[in-house]
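Appendix B. Extra example for self-study. Work through it before the problem class; the solution is given directly after the inputs so you can check yourself.
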Amino acid sequence: MNAIVKVENVGMAFETKKGSFVALKDVNLQIRTGEVVSLIGHSGCGKSTLLNLIAGLTLPTSGVMLCNGREIAGPGPERAVVFQNHSLLPWLNCFENVYLAVERVFSAKEGKEALRARTHAALEMVHMGHAAQKLPHEISGGMKQRIGIARAFAMEPKILLMDEPFGALDALTRAALQDELIGVMEKTGATVVMVTHDVDEAVLLSDRVVMMTNGPAATIGEILEVKLEKPRNRLQLAHDPHFAECRAAILEFLYQKQMKKAA
Amino acid sequence: MTTATLTSGLMAVRPEADATPVKETDMAATSAATPALVSTPDNSVSFGEHFSNFIRAVLPPLIGFALVIGLWALVAMKSADFPSPAKTLDAAVVLFSDPFYQNGPNDQGIGWNILSSLKRVAIGFGFAALVGIPMGFIIGRFAFMNSMLEPIISILRPVSPLAWLPIGLMVFKAADPASTWTIFICSIWPMILNTAQGVQRVPQDYLNVARVLNLSEFRIITKILFPSVLPYMLTGIRLSIGTAWLVIVAAEMLTGGVGIGFWVWDEWNNLKVEHILIAIFVIGIVGLLLEYLLLLIARRFSYGTN
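Solution. Structure tokens for the complete assembly:
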């Protein structure tokens, strides 16, 4: 059991004007090195909250969070985040956006040339080398998210956290970026935790799908192992019985066991 | 005025762009429209359209000016003191044919007067930026400083900067720095408040990026805080330069010396009303140019809304 992230009895409550609101309760989860885990659930079930806790952007009100055996006390470059809205700095071009991250992580050990080479390699990996000198507002939404992914991978994090990374994209662009991500994960063997509300995306990309119950006081309902050969191909999977099984299991969980009352 | 003409000028290109079947960005559309204009047989029609669009953009302002000048001529006919537009124009030609003469401290060309007013504005304004922008950063970053200074600023901000002129005269014992001082006072409030607002409105996403990347405080300031506050700062600067140009005329009327405000008062004493009218135009045009210049700078630093 080689767990890089351990979440033990974690609870999260927010103070609101109407008193305390319990978002998460008794969450237990272990993430192994090299695996891809999806968090899925209805909106408001606290899946983003859980991701932010692992990122260290917020701290839990109860329980313990460990990364590499050490308590998570705040954000750090070993836990890179790909934000839903890409969060590129609009005044830096694509190269500079990635370079900012690379510089922070590697400048202690490497010279300028090596840092630049790393940045270029990261941009090439997501096939965005041609847009290095472009400002974020000059490229499309899908391209921005590619840069966001390049920035995260360039930091060579121990674990990559993605908060609905393709949520703001149209279906075709999303599929293209999922394939891109499959390729990058194959090359780097990265450990990934991804929040999604897309059932197909969860099955296509993950080794395990963590299904969360409805909030308030949400927790992990079921965990599904996806035993499909990697690398995966979306066309072949369309006729794969195990793919259909996994999909059905998640749909059943979301729309029968955790049906939302009057959405 | 200039901006209004510019935008309607841009609008004039639009109908052409809509005619192209594929929807493209404005720039692409206009360049696509130009070859079409040459190749299509009915190019006389599109030329006519262009011409009528041009007329539509230029005609209303022209009518506006014509009306004002007509009204002015009417008033001038009825009144003995009020100079006619023609007389004012003659006076303007004489004035602007030699804007940089110098006959002692109280008789200088209009060019010198404008320049020395602009110099005062620049100095007062520069000091205001030097003090106001860092102060805005501090107020925006620390809630304690905000609640400490906010009531003081709220009381002082509505005060006419001219009320501070005697204080300036007392402290500096000279007219010139005293009027610069009023410019400092009137420019500093918009700068502090807008910078502070900009700091408070740095998007949380960017700060999250900074936290995840674990950027140093120096990098956070240079790469995240400063660029995202800059548009707010420039708005503050644009607001203050507008007020500064309003105030300098009044301050110079009170303190004397060289300057466009003093010149207005001097010409009133000489009963040269046509010069006062010229000064009004000149002050208006210089104010407009200052505003336009800052708009251009602001546009350079406004990054596309993502």
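Self-check: The radius of gyration of chain A is 19 Å. If your reasoning did not lead you there, revisit section 3.
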